[in-house]
Design a protein that fits this description.
By secondary structure, this protein is α/β, with parallel strands linked by helices. 38% of the residues lie in helices and 23% in strands. It has 2 domains: 3-75 and 377-433, Urease, subunit C, domain 1 (Roll); 77-333, Alpha-Beta Barrel (TIM Barrel). It has helices spanning 27-30, 52-56, 97-110, 115-131, 145-157, 181-195, 215-225, 241-250, 257-263, 281-290, 298-303, 311-317, 335-347, 355-369, 396-403, 408-418, and strands at residues 8-18, 31-42, 45-51, 65-75, 77-83, 134-140, 161-165, 167-168, 201-207, 232-237, 271-275, 293-296, 321-323, 387-390, 424-429, 432-433. Bound molecules: guanine and zinc ion.
Length: 434
């Protein structure tokens, strides 16, 4: 046990967190902001957040206060969709989804048959999350059980809140990435048994997308999902037109893409669909009714050329939305950079993403999408003290731009449009700096 986790910790700085979606409530009531604030943490949990002048008086005189004055303390970023095995093929040139998978993603994922390589990538990946201020991630692994095993083991050591699972794939991919249906089922069960609920880890049953699973594997995925309480279902939906056409060919009985997952009872409140770009109004309505969440992956959607996610439609339907980097389809681990891409995707549709909404999506919005809003995503008392300390003036240009920014919203907008890993001053996991 880290000794830091037993005593009280105090962090001074500007503090911002959300308690509601600023688009669905009076935006003044959606967030709490203390220009000069104090965050108190005990045993890894938030004890209080409030004005420095008030809270500091309540502290025993010997309390050691970590001084982040001039910087912004926010709940750690939540990346609702990322592929750790694609770390080394990030920024691969010139293909759209299905060809990109074939040319880059699949061959690289094949390398996770080598446990040494998987361990090396995992170490780098976790460091990269922290360097970018991400403290919770929902991660796709490869088909190899050890790819999940190694990630869980190392995430547990770091006390990271992580949702992950080995992918289920048994068709329409290279042989070296295909699972025997029965073996894949039992390997998933063993991983669930071993890791789900350990520390801050949860298991996501992960049929990669309907294209790479037979109907009998999708049936098995539902059996896995129902094998224990609290399991997640993590997959891709409606990202690319050629993908959607292929779904029609492979599942000719289906009304639409969503129907395939519905038929196999994979759609519910613990389901996350990555992308969800080219949905019909009927699909949006059915997702809303199901309680499933979607991961908005704007950097990937632009990079792979997939299309424009319609946030307004999702919000109007009441669908929980989080942000996903979708590394390696997305070419950055930075949630700040991903927010900037989100802004541009929405500008192209006449929807202007406010900085408040963007920071909400990256924190409490992501937590809500993952059903974790009672644990992370804000600084309400009792929440796990995962937080990120942001530097407003990480670059000379940001320094100049911040100098002429007058409001909190303006400064947040500068952070999201110009910020990246250089803006992340510190990342804390349950109070402890990492
Ligand atoms: N659809 C199925 N697999 C993938 C993947 O690895 N990346 C993205 N962006 N979409 C997918
Ligand atoms: Zn993805």
């Amino acid at each position: 046990m880290n000794p830091d986790r037993e005593k009280q910790q105090a962090f001074k700085g500007s503090i911002l967190f959300f308690t509601a979606d600023p688009d669905r409530s009076d935006s003044q009531e959606a967030y709490t902001y203390y220009e000069e604030g104090l965050l108190l943490v005990r045993e890894g949990l938030v004890e209080a957040a409030g004005p420095f002048a008030e809270l500091a008086e309540t502290l025993p005189p010997e309390t050691d206060i970590t001084d982040y004055s001039g910087r912004l303390i926010i709940p750690g970023f939540v990346d609702t969709h990322i592929h750790y095995p694609q770390t080394d093929i990030i920024a691969s040139y010139g293909k759209q989804l299905l060809e990109w998978l074939e040319k880059y993603a699949f061959p690289r994922e094949g390398m996770f048959a080598d446990a040494g390589y998987a361990a090396d990538v995992t170490d780098f990946f976790l460091q990269e999350l922290f360097r970018n201020g991400t403290t919770t991630a929902q991660v796709m692994c490869t088909v190899h059980p050890q790819s999940a095993e190694i990630l869980f083991e190392k995430a547990l050591e770091k006390n990271l809140r992580l949702i992950a699972g080995k992918t289920l794939m048994n068709c329409n991919a290279p042989d070296y990435l295909l699972d025997d249906n029965t073996k894949g089922f039992h390997a998933s069960l063993a991983l669930i048994e071993r890791w789900h609920g350990q520390g801050r880890l949860s298991y996501a049953v992960t049929p990669r997308f309907a294209i790479t699973s037979t109907e009998s594997q999708l049936e098995k995925a539902a059996d896995l999902l129902n094998s224990r309480g609290g399991l997640y279902l993590h997959t891709h939906l409606s990202e690319n037109h050629a993908e959607i056409d292929m779904i029609q060919t492979l599942f000719p009985w289906s009304r639409d893409y969503l129907d395939v997952y519905e038929r196999f009872e994979l759609v519910g409140p613990r389901t996350t669909f990555a992308h969800a770009i080219h949905l019909s109004p009927a699909e949006i309505e059915r997702i809303a009714v199901s309680g499933a969440a979607v991961s908005f992956c704007p950097a990937s959607n632009l990079f792979i050329g997939s299309g424009l996610f319609n946030l307004e439609n999702m919000t109007a339907a009441g669908i929980p939305v989080g942000i996903g980097t979708d590394v390696g389809g997305g070419a950055s681990f930075s949630i700040l950079k991903t927010m900037a891409e989100a802004y541009k995707v929405l500008q192209l549709q006449g929807q202007s993403l406010s900085a408040l909404k963007a920071f909400y999506l990256a924190t409490l919005g992501g937590a809500t999408a993952l059903g974790l809003a009672d644990r992370i995503g804000s600084f309400l008392p009792g929440r796990e003290a995962d937080f990120t300390v942001l530097n407003f003036d990480a670059t000379p240009l940001m320094e100049r731009r911040i100098a002429v920014s007058e409001t909190l919203e303006e400064r947040l907008f500068v952070l999201m449009m110009l910020g990246d890993d250089r803006s992340i001053s510190h990342t804390h996991i349950m109070g402890t700096p990492v």
